[in-house]
Amino acid sequence: MPHSTPNEDPRLTLWLRVREFAVPPPMIESATARRATGDWAAACAAAHVDVDLDLRRIARLHGQELATHLRTDLRHLAPDLLRWHMPRIAPNGLLRPGLTLSLARYHEGDNTVHLVARTPPAWADAGQRISLALWDGSRSGPHPHPHPNRRFRLDLHRHLWDARRAGELRTRSETAPHARGWAVDRWPAEARLLLRAEGQDGGTVAVRVGGRRQVLVDVDASRAGDRGPAPPPILPDAATWVLPDLALLRAGLIEAGRLHPLVAAALVPGHSPDARPRGRQSENGPRTVECRGARHRIALVNGVLVALDHDASEIRREKLLAELTGTPLPCLQLIEEAHRSPECLLDVHARLEHGDAAGAQATVDGLLGPGAQLPEGALRDALEKAARRRIDHGLFRAGLGPEAGPAKRPEPGLAERPDRRSRKGRARPRHATFR
């Protein structure tokens, strides 16, 4: 697992960890295979995406035309690609909790209906699951923030989740490196796309640049006042930063074969979109330990971790002596330590926190053998804690968690907590003009 150093960019370190653990190759393969057969619901299940959609009910409530557009989008949704590009938070790159972001917008008369992706609140984020729903302005359900977030949205970035548009990733992410990873030279073009989506030919767009600071981008200064007193639209976070995969490639920290196949095909010319993403190679060969003046080997035999250089009778005798003296043979000490707190424990922790329970179990099985009985220790604690936290997620999905009840209504047009500081203490936005 990569470890950061003082000279590394912490943002790249975070995204390298995400690329290592958050969307494992088996998930991509399984979701892709199911999507290729037209089974979008099974593809979502493979990518740990819960579907809170009833297409028949949607057709009754919103009309057949909207339902048809929605069904088409779902058939081309690559849920593993969506997970790949979802907003994440430091320090471990977990999904940004309690988020509702728009994937697509459908117009129903004067009303706009959103296909949204949601992440659970932090207390229920075990499994790192995502859910899909249709939002029409209602506030029912257990989610604390049902309203689509103005800053985190992908309806203007379909190439980040729609397999038909994935090839656009290169042109939408081409940018020169800038300090702190800002995609500054993409802002004017992205601002125009945002303003057109808001029904404007020009005007001002706000860009969040950390904390409560923002830059105002005028793509046409003569029209900057058209909105009157209304706050300017916020440039989507996906357009604010240099694409993480592009930054990792430029820094030489990742190879194309470790990227999502659709991402690699777009960013690396000649790379096949059908190529399997490569994870790190496991090291399941014999391990050695200094034991009684010799180098002895420890390895899996018939799915059990054993000391190869001691016969069965010697092992039984040494175990009995260890119970009497408390000092086991060095080979037995290594096996015991591997069961309690193995050298792969950091990997197991990372996979569990990113929701890859199957990958975590496979790592344990590869080291200790399938069905190994774990004694008390850090490894068993980690697995049991992950299992308990998955219960919390189930309670959240059932509306039975600590935040059960009707969600609080956000302020109109806002999706973030209001600034409680006085105006005197707020930093004024900087202003930049692009023509």
Automatic annotation (TrEMBL):
<feature type="region of interest" description="Disordered">
    <location>
        <begin position="397"/>
        <end position="435"/>
    </location>
</feature>
<feature type="compositionally biased region" description="Basic residues">
    <location>
        <begin position="420"/>
        <end position="435"/>
    </location>
</feature>
<feature type="compositionally biased region" description="Basic and acidic residues">
    <location>
        <begin position="406"/>
        <end position="419"/>
    </location>
</feature>
<protein>
    <submittedName>
        <fullName>Uncharacterized protein</fullName>
    </submittedName>
</protein>
